[in-house]
Structures are given as C-alpha cells and as structure tokens.
Amino acid sequence: MRFFIALEIPEYSQKQLQVVQSEIKKLAPEARLTDPEKLHLTIAFVGEQADKMQSSLVEVIKKSVQDIPPFEVTPAYLDGFPNLHHPHTIWVGVKGDIDKLFVVRERVKDGLVDLGLEVDERRYIPHIAVAKLNSNYHLNEVQEGEFQKMMMEEFEPIQIDAIKLFESIPEEGFHRHNTLAEVPLVHSESKKADLR
To answer: Nearest Cα to 124, choosing from 67, 8, 41?
Structure first.
C-alpha cells in the first residue's frame, strides 16, 4: 500500500481553491489541475509499505495529536516548487495555527523513525498542491505578478478537527485517494470532562 498522512480539505474550501485553479489555467493553459476532491495538506508521505503497517501508522497519528485541540489554517498565498518562476508544482500556502501543524508533523516524523521508516528531512512547508506543470516550464514576470494577485481575497479558514491516513492508488496515470483511518482531535474541554 502507498500511504500518506494528511489533512482533508473541506468542500467549501475546495470551491474557493477551484476559483484559484481556474485563474491558474487561464494564465498557464498547460497546467494540470489537481482534482478538487483530491486536494489535501500533506503532513507526511510514507510511501509503499506492507498492508500490515496500517495499524502502526494509525497509532503514530494518535500519539501525534495528543493534547492538540482542533485548530484552523487559512489559505493565504501562492507559490511553487522549486520556485514560482520555474514551478513544477503550484501550491497554496496557509497561515493561522500552523504551530500546531508543525508539532503534529514533528511527532509523526519521530513515530515513523521509531517504526524504522525513512522520513523526508527537507524543510516542511504546509501547502496544498493545486496544479502541476512540466519541469521545463517558466513563468514570465507578468504571469508571476498575476499569480501573486490571485490570493488577495480573503479565504475561509479551514477547520482542522481530524488527521487522516490515506492510501494512494494508481489509476490510469493518476492517483485515487482512499481514506483508511480518521483520528479526531479532541477539544480540551471534553478531555477535562473525561478526567472528572
């Protein structure tokens, strides 16, 4: 199974991001847009592992969200990998309670290391991939300026109340995502109630 751990993007945010995607397509017709239903914010890509690893990965997620209450992140800016001038991936960055996101990410990484799995050591940038371009594609200055203007409007915050374990299934040159497990974040008030 090809596993990854991520936050799902709710339908209301998908619709807002679709507006950005349609603007990207107008400016860069060659862009291949991410299917709105597959939009997500990756915490860790685990990769190909034995099916039996699923339960261990769920435990890693459970430990990583201990004491983390539900939080919000808000789509805020557009950028690209490796950069916006020469992007093979165009993505939307987020602002808000990203400190909680970094805590969860570090705990997940530690849990994966404990399982003997390799982890990506590159600097973590919370992002939602919205489009892909050929690796030799270059944006000109006008396109770059227009891309940056796209994120001027206010976006609805995304409510994060669960972390999910997904399976990525190759399908006709694309990948279908299947939710394997959902680990809820617990409100601190309900935790206190449980302790009484």
So the answer is: 41
Give dist(CA 64, CA 5) in Å, integer: 11
pLDDT at 102: 96
Strands (E), the chain: 2-8, 32-33, 40-48, 71-81, 89-96, 127-132, 158-160, 162-171, 174-184
* Helix (H), strand (E) counts: the chain: 5, 9
- What tens digit of pLDDT does each residue of 6-34 get? 999 999 999 999 999 999 999 889 999 99
CA dist., res. 163 & res. 147, Å (int): 30
Contact of 74 with 155, CB cutoff 8 Å: yes
Total count of domains within the chain: 1
Residue 171: φ, ψ to 5°: -155, 105
Reported pTM: 0.88
pLDDT the model gives residue 195: 38
Q: What backbone torsions phi and psi does residue 194 show, to the nearest 5 degrees?
A: -65, -30
Residue span of the structural domain in which 15 resides: 2-195
pLDDT band at residue 149, thresholds of 50, 70 and 90?
Answer: confident
Instruction: Please report, for the domain that includes residue 68, its CATH number.
Output: 3.90.1140.10
